[in-house]
What does this fold into?
Amino acid sequence: MPMTALAFPDISPIALQLGPIAIHWYGVGYIVGILFAWWYAKRLVSNDALWLAGQPRPQKLDIDDFVMWAAIGVVLGGRVGYILFYDLPRYLANPLDIFKVWEGGMSFHGGFLGTTLAMIFFARSRKIPVWTMFDVVAAGVPVALGLVRIANFINSELWGRPTDHSWGVIFPTGGPIPRHPSQLYEAFLEGFVLFIVLIVLIFAAKRLKRPGFIAGTFVFGYGLSRIAAEFFREPDAQIGYLAGNWLTMGMVLSVPMVLAGLAAMGWSLRKRMA
It folds into this structure.
């Protein structure tokens, strides 16, 4: 082991073993993240100071009912997205592998699309403004992202490119060379930093009063953070680099998010406030 490398922490990927049932940190990250976003959204919709007088918004009961829709959108969208974006030939050759979710294989971009569709259908069914629904849900998502990225680190997966920096980590599944702990970079950018930015915009700048701005900031911030992290993250082996020694599928899928986020923020600021 190089003198500058850090040993991988001895943390079991299994958070809790209940007889034959193993609860993994990855699943815990998803569950805790969804529960936090649910609790946080209820706090936001019940705080009148954050909204214009008479501004239509989801109620606490709506948030309660949406939790199941969100969970289905995240899991189904994440799985389908991974299959389509990252490993389609494998699943075409072995269709039954689609159902082997315990082997891993989730895509944020797919989960994002799945949850977006769930929000649209749910908001329309309850006659809630769609952009306001986007804002309320997006506000708490960075916490879930941060937790899942930490779980990726514990699982020794999605590790970074080789590095000679002193904080390089020898991953059990990444060979004998030190690598960037890119999962932690993503947890910091997509999780902590983005969450703090949204807190400032919500509570200090009162941006929930402008539908679409918080959602746009989240989409823009995630896309920018993901592109930055991809420069340190090892691309999926079955895809590799799409061009040169730097362009990855994660970058390609994130560029539209950056543009869409900017467009949403611009539209929100131009829209006349009631």
Q: What stands out?
A: The mean pLDDT is 93. The first strand starts at residue 6 and ends at 7. The two ends are 63 Å apart (CA to CA). The longest helix spans residues 60-86.
